[in-house]
Amino acid sequence: MRSHLLNDLTAEHYRRSVTEGVERVAAKLATTERPFTGVTVDALAPRVERIDLDRPLHDTAAVLDELEEIYLRDAVYFHHPRYLAHLNCPVVIPAVVGEAVLSAVNSSLDTWDQSAGGTLIERRLIDWTAARIGLGPAADGVFTSGGTQSNLQALLLAREEAKTGSLGRLRILASEASHFSVQKAAKLLGLGQDAVIPVPVDRDRRMRTVALARELERCTRDGLVAMAVVATAGTTDFGSIDPLPEIAALCARYGVWLHVDAAYGCGLLASVKYRDRLAGIERADSVTVDYHKSFFQPVSSSAVLVRDGATLRHATYHADYLNPRRTAPERVPNQVDKSLQTTRRFDALKLWLTLRTMGADGIGELFDEVCDLARDGWRLLAADPRFDVVVEPALSTLVFRCVPAGVTDPAEIDRANLHARKALFASGDAVVAATRVDGRHYLKFTLLNPETTTADIAAVLDLIAGHAEQYLGASLDRAS
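Above: the chain sequence. Below: its structure as tokens.
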């Protein structure tokens, strides 16, 4: 069994096995003609369920053949230019190299004596990101598993800094378009169901600052404590960016913690053309960034950053077997002192190798390309009478729906769009997302692939319109 471990006796086995796996995946990436095969759960589940995990194959090639059948053949491939659905990006090669290195060495980024240089690389990247944001010399942060964890930790810090004895009085203010993790964090933090106050948005799906001011004043009047305002720089549905300077001014006036959820919009930190769209983020008390969204990194690669590193003490616990309190005066750089996690992957390495290979401008140019593509896609939709598009994009998201000629019943239009998305997914020709806008069903393109073209967008729109029309035609046949 020792031959299956990575040690000096098995280096050649490691090299051969990894090479076989890489070649298999590379072949799939080179030959995949569609983003998805259209396989159903009923068709795929039996293949997985019939595998006897207690009877190993003892052969890498045979295992990869099996993996081809149950995973690689039917995976959803984000690198395909017609994958247009969720906030999933194709990944850059330096980051994939980093993934291979960090998995093989298997550092754990909780204590210095488990990671050494890995700790310093992560800390350097936190400093780099904080400087890009403009948080100031006292800033700090830590890598996380994703935006949900980052938002949770930021709101934990805000709760502790609020200094109130009654959790029931605490309130979080966030726009109606904010991420669901804000509500989840409130529940996990022991706050009441009414703790999150939704703030109305304008026609561009940006938080209305007049409404925010009204809610802050109401909290003061009613004896409630506004522990945090969550502004979003890149909402999941619309890519909208809340008016950060105005929100920051209100938070300063009322003495409220400002958290900016920039999980999506953080790509603008490297942008060559659109960095000014994040103006005001430098005034935040905490910021969420997801490098695995708009820095083209593999999942997971994310961080939470704070203006005042001292606030991270609210996540610090000492264990004699890990980070004993007696070592604190020695200033041993244990990242577990800042993190909600203990054992934690060296995900920072992927971003480090990407920056050292491509540079920040290289990443930013890729993100600028998808923002430009979204603007072109919006023009296509706005000029096409078959579609209704919701807002002009601030980032790379388009929300729209097909409105077939002669159909006026909103419910029938809803059903046609739901059918079109389902039929498109089943065909495997493209993958798009869906959402609800003002109670009606809409479709969504999230453009994070610089290889996608306006021709791809136009072709997918034609497919959507075709499926919607087929559904309406079949519906008329059934009615007659």
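The longest strand covers residues 225-232.
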